[in-house]
Write a structure and sequence with these properties.
InterPro entries: CBS_bac, CBS_dom, CBS_dom_sf, Diverse_CBS-Domain. Residues 11-70, 78-133 form the CBS domain. The chain has six helices and six strands. The protein is of the alpha+beta class. It has a single domain (2-137), classed as Roll (CBS-domain), CATH 3.10.580.
Length: 138
């Protein structure tokens, strides 16, 4: 039942989070390899300090690739202090929040450290699964 689903039930692991000192080209490589639309940025204690999306990168990739400028780092362009959720948060409440605010991806934080990522696509997939189960039960 959706009312009982928690973020921990749907969250994905983040194999390679970004760091603020990472070069833009390295960060883009990790984002592309992850299959996500962006990744959390962590400090040396694994605390989330930002989020970098494909959208954030695109404008800088255009100018950096044109001028062969590789000096841009993640900290220069990331969104600081992204909205985060905890593993115990309700999926239903998160879905309601996602319908009102823009982020498509939320870092999942427990005891101040990154433990995963949950995306709007995962939440939509679960909501749709539950809707299909309702139709079968009728």
């Amino acid at each position: 039942m959706l009312l009982q689903k928690q973020v921990r039930d749907l969250m994905l692991p983040v194999a390679r989070p970004l760091t603020g000192q990472m070069a833009l080209s390295d960060a883009v490589g990790l984002i592309l390899a992850s299959g996500q639309m962006g990744l959390p940025v962590i400090d040396d204690r694994h605390a989330v300090i930002g989020f970098l999306s494909e959208h954030d990168c695109l404008r800088y990739l255009v100018s950096s690739s044109y001028y062969c400028d590789s000096r841009i780092q993640v900290a220069d362009i990331m969104h600081p202090d992204p909205l985060c959720v905890t593993p115990g948060d309700s999926v239903l409440e998160l879905a309601q929040q996602m319908s009102k605010v823009k982020p498509k991806n939320y870092p999942v934080v427990e005891r101040g450290k990154l433990v995963g990522l949950i995306t709007r696509r995962q939440v939509m997939t679960e909501l749709n699964r539950m809707l299909r189960e309702c139709k079968v039960a009728i």
